Amino acid sequence: MKRRIVVPAIVLVALIAVAGCKKKQPVPTQATAPPATAPAAPTAQLTATPGVISAGDQVQLSWHTTDANAVSIDGIGDVPTEGVKTVTPTQSTTYHLVARGDGGSAEASASVTVNAPIAAVVPSTSMTAEEEFKANVQDIFFDYDTADIRSDAQATLSKDANYLVSHPDVKIVIGGYCDERGSDEYNLALGQNRANAAKNALVNDGVGADRVRVISYGKEKPFCTESNEQCWQLNRRAGFSMDQ
Amino acid sequence: MNLPSGAKAPMILSCAMYGLKAVPFKVPSGYLSPRATSWKRVSRARRPRFRYPSGRTADRMKAKLRCLPVILLCLVFFQAPRILAQDWVHTGTNLGNSAIRLAVADFKPVGADPQTPALKAVFDATLYNDLNNAGIFDMVSKSLAPQAMPGSPQEMVLSQWSAMPASAAMVAFGAFSVTNGRLVVYGWLDDANNAASPQVLAQQYNENATEEMARTIAHRFADAIIYRLGGGINGIAETKIYFVSSRTGSKEIWEMDYDGENQHQLTHLGTISMSPHVSPDNSRVAFDSLEREGWAIRMYSLDLSRLVSFPAGAPGGSNYSPAWTSDGTRVAFSSARGGHPDIWTCDVGGSNLHRITSFGTDTSPVWNPRTNAQIAFVSGRTGEPQIYTMDQDGSNVQRMTDSGYAVSPSWSPSGGLLTFSWNRKYGPGDPGGQDIYVFQIASMQWLQATHESGSNDFPSWSPDGRHIAFERTIGGRTQIWSMLADGTHQQQLTHTGNNYMPDWSWK
Fold this sequence. Notes:
The complex is a heterodimer.
Chain A: H1 2-24, H2 26-31, E1 43-49, E2 52-54, E3 59-66, E4 70-73, E5 77-79, E6 82-87, E7 93-101, E8 104-115, H3 129-136, E9 140-141, H4 151-166, E10 172-177, H5 184-204, E11 212-218, H6 229-235, E12 237-242
Parallel strand pairs in A: 2-8, 10-11
Antiparallel strand pairs in A: 1-3, 3-6, 4-5, 4-7, 7-8, 9-12, 10-12
Helix pairs in contact in A: 4-5
Chain B: H1 9-21, E1 40-41, H2 56-77, H3 80-85, E2 100-104, E3 108-110, H4 116-133, E4 137-139, H5 158-162, E5 170-179, E6 182-191, E7 199-208, H6 211-229, E8 240-245, E9 252-257, E10 264-265, E11 273-278, E12 284-291, E13 294-301, E14 306-308, E15 319-324, E16 330-335, E17 342-347, E18 354-355, E19 362-367, E20 374-379, E21 386-391, E22 398-399, E23 405-411, E24 417-423, E25 435-440, E26 445-448, E27 455-461, E28 467-474, E29 477-484, E30 491-492, E31 499-504
Helix pairs in contact in B: 1-2, 4-6
């Protein structure tokens, strides 16, 4: 008889203990203070352009860190110490970047406000071809005054090529873009080389050359018009769109 | 302004002086103002095929040594950075040559037609501006000139004009009347110091009485004077400038008089049109335009006021920057139809199509208008764009600029000079401006024509070789300017919207 009472009592105590523990668990995470920055601490910058979008639109995240060994962005994972990435948030999101280095760590965040779509979130199967294309074929970016494919662009291009190889009916136009510096006429030639470089990479990855058109826009159709490196980087690109 | 080290100063200064002293650069008479100055030399290991006549090397060295004390003195008296920053101070050759001192009397109004005063004001102002713009006269300002308005040689009292303060060597004057809707102008040019036989020029004009014709008559009389006194080189007062304007919302091709008057739109394509280049006979404007299939070279007929076909300019969707030979029979352009942007040439009808470069990122070709046998162009084959020349079959490629970012060449009518836009200190994070330079091909010497005023691009020679039109961007606004080829007498020609890529007509 005693045992009958004792066993449930122990179980009850154990349950309470477990429940109690669970309740406390979030507290330490919230309480985690950002590590104090040491003198030679890394620095981090993160921006999202544009800051307000409608659901389904793309956002360019671009970040820049110094003195960092490891950089990660919540929800994206480990990333290079600087770079640009296109994301398509479905709801308002604050992107949080942590840069860790020998001298400590630094954080930066950037918020994107997503205006709710009229319809509920559409399952991917009912995306229009255009939306699916945009979600899967991402633009690549170039260094200053060159049409050489960067290593981060190489990765993007292989994904783009994978999508295009698995969707053989899709034809594309690659636009070559340049930043505002330099001469209009020379930038048309430079944009041409950027678009061509992207095309060649896709063709090497198995995309039929006859499916790809290239047009240089030089500095005639910029994505942004500010005179700073961030905007210039966004404008030095090869942009992909469906050929209709 | 602040330069990192003064150590470079002596080298650059001696370059400048050596350029002037030991190898005096004779400006072709009439092609550049005698004030042309400060010629520099491209410094690079791979010198062009240019040798000094034997025996001159020693002279050069001596001249250099003679300069040495002067250089040292300069360094003592001025801070070295200031010397460098002001490398455009006007020192130079031929400074003793004086331009002809020319006075222009206001024309005498004849008759009482109510149109006369307004049209005469346009005429008087245009005539004075044209002669002032010519760059070969020392103009007597209107405030120093006598008030007299002699309407005929009989009414002319030359001593009034040759005396102080006008001190004119030549006087232009005449009579201006409107009768029955016709504008009648008599114009004379007198030598103020030759009382016995003063008349140099007598002209008569009879046109419709409109403001445009008042301006045209002034242009014609000015050009007659410039031709007579300017060494037989035709004036440019009746020339046009073709350009790109985005004032309507899209980049379209426009036309204006050389002085910025009479601006009007030619194309209405609603896309992006750029790089206009008028044919030597003023019958067509070639340009490039973004269409659905990409960039095509298009032709706009000035005779028919509409586009005419140029099929050779469309294939591949990547065709840029057309250029004419001076006989109007051939066209060069940049096209990526072969994979990357190369220079191509063809007949004006599209036949005889050849690719003449194959390194990629080649654009902005321009023919030597004297010979039609060479082409200057821009190439990014070694990184930043540089200016090159080659024979018209693509052989004998020579690099002209040694560093920086050099684009947009225009070849002078005489064939001896190039002008282009050059940013010598170009590079990420580097300061420095994009300026217009004039470059003598034979000697590889250059002079800087614009200084510390905005970002300057697309220089285009006038047919007399004395002027250059160009675009200048200051604070995000781009406008078209003109100047004398030595950089003096800069004036803004457009003021509405943004305006780009001027191309000066051939006549």
